[in-house]
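batch_manifest entry 22 of 60
target: Amino acid transporter transmembrane domain-containing protein
source organism: Lupinus luteus
requested by: lab member K.T.
priority: normal
notes from requester: please return tokens only, no post-processing; we will run our own comparison against the previous entry in this batch. if the run fails, retry once and flag.
--- input ---
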Amino acid sequence: MGEAKEIYSAPITPKTALSPPVSCPPSQFHSPSLTRSPLLQSENGDVHSHPKSKTPKTPRTPRMSLTPRFITPLGSPVRKVLRFTKLDPQDAWLPITESRNGNKYYAAFHTLCSGIGIQALVLPVAFTILGWTWGIISLVIAFIWQLYTLWLLVHLHESVEQGIRYSRYLQLICATFGEKMGKLVAMFPILYLSAGTCTTLIIIGGTTARTFYQVVCGDACATAKPLTTTEWYLVFTCAAVVLSQLPNLNSIAGISLVGAVTAVGYCTSIWAVSVAQGALPGVNYDPIRKGNSAQSAFSILNALGIIAFAFRGHNLILEIQATMPSSEKHPSHVPMWKGVKVSYTIIAACLFPLAIGGYWAYGQLIPSNGGMLTALYAYHSHDVSSFVLGFTSIFVVLNGLCSFQIYGMPAFDDMESSYTTRMKKPCPWWLRSIFRVFFGFFCFFIGVAIPFLSSLAGLIGGVSLPVTLAYPCFMWLKIKKPKKHGPMWCLNWFLGTFGVCLSVILVVASIYIIVDTGINVSFFNPQ
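--- output ---
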């Protein structure tokens, strides 16, 4: 095809100008022997095996277009498809885009594993501030809002007009707003949603592993010197680092499936056991109001931040979709959205019973630090069998190990991208292993240094809220350019602006609550 292009774009010489026009049969356009065809010209301009004619020769009209004649009827679609499927060669070296044979099932596994987790267990804490009515309304609005922005991201992943696949959230936002502005507004939230989430998983996973050991072994397995909390963090980190050696995002689809099953398992078991045991004696459902009106307002905003924190994973949607093959005829957003619909149906079936059932069972008595998991151990450790408690604990640990892999993948990808960009070659296996070990133990160090990180749910929710609820709306306006003052234009401007303002207010409110009520700050002293 490339040589055929040279035929038609060759300069017109006197000899070729006198040659009669020759029409090549369509069957020869895709023939492997096209380069040996007698219809091709030699270097000196003569036509092989074509005797000179004695009849007058008609001068040939020069062709101004470089497009070969045989693809002219299909030129535009063919060029679009070729441009759309052309990938950055470096993508084949990086863990997110190294394998592009994903499907809707893999998408559902990854989305479910990243979209539900430990953060959902603190939802009833928000209800203690908001009460029944506003708690349920806020949860429904947040769910619908984040599902809408998820739809926006799925359809922003690929641009047919430009032939580009935005395989990473930061790549899309930098392409939309420019590299400097994109990194300024999104770098910290995205880094926190990767490294910060992995650190939180180490803290909660290590603590729950210690609880599992105590539940299963009890007094019979007590030793003279049991493992400390820091040592349990280390055990969890070592297991996570071993699993992180799988090469790319598609290779951990099975791990994401395990993470999804365990997340659904422990969420269901916690709310089912709590509801089955009945409401605690003296439970109260009146919203908590402390101090003056300003303190109450900040408490309400902090509760909204906790609800926002329950919905995460938007920073991974483009990365998950990047593992799928895509073409103009079969775009990746079709199977991706099918997987998202299934996974978020299951997420809704977990989050709403967990929030509503947990608040009904514990009311204002639910612990603010740890939520449902802490309440289960505190109030029902003697009423529920050790099997149920152990089952719940091990599922929390397994889900933490599996979620660590998918949330750590953007960090792995970024470290390897720095190497491949500089060295112009794939990252060797031994260096890839070093990167992942370094990342795992860096998160371990942060977890030991700041063990109260998991207590900052409201603040974290406020910081990461624009990534989930605001930025996708602005990116849709910038890239898709909907009709001005039309429904999509107005909706995205409102949601985007409201999301950014809400994020700023939630951060301020969360900082005020932390300063006013205090938290158990214990640097380098995990409890």
